């Protein structure tokens, strides 16, 4: 089976730091795969907070998100106490969804490169929704430059 290999983006307009906690470690003593997904989630929450929105409200009082897909390429280990810098950039932004690219670094090396596909979702009607215009504009402004 061919490996899905992600390339680095030209730039990551948003960054945050996340310290590796004991609960992030697996039996190998390094950050586990499901825990890396949690680290990406924490970075996305920080990104949205910086934009003045959150995952349950993209700014219109009714539209949140659900994850459609996720790819993580691991490149190096991260250990207890490491400070990881997570860079985020929006990829394609459509009418009802968008992509976020992540670059996780620590100790001077790339730990992981990841990408998520997210879809606008109206939790009241339990249905796919359109992205609010203001959110789309802000997301496009925080793209990777590609």
Could you list some keywords that capture this structure?
single chain, 146 residues, alpha+beta, Thiol Ester Dehydrase, Chain A, six-stranded antiparallel β-sheet, globular, fatty acyl-CoA hydrolase activity, HotDog_dom_sf
- CATH architectural designation: Roll
Instruction: Please identify which CATH superfamily we are dealing with.
Output: Hotdog Thioesterase
Largest sheet: 6 strands, antiparallel
Q: Give the CATH level 1 class.
A: Alpha Beta
Q: How many β-strand runs?
A: 6
Low-confidence stretches: none
What distance lies between the first and last C-alpha atoms, to the nearest angstrom?
28 Å
Mean pLDDT: 96
Strand-residue proportion: 35-45%
What does this entry look like structurally?
The structure is a single chain. Strands 1, 2, 3, 4, 5 and 6 form a six-stranded antiparallel sheet that branches. Strand 5 (109-122) and strand 6 (127-128) form a beta hairpin. The chain has helices at residues 33-51, 133-141, and strands at residues 14-19, 63-74, 83-93, 97-106, 109-122, 127-128. The protein is 19% helix and 38% strand. By secondary structure, it is an alpha+beta fold. Keywords: Hydrolase. InterPro entries: 4-hydroxybenzoyl-CoA_TE (IPR050563), HotDog_dom_sf (IPR029069). Pfam families: 4HBT_2.
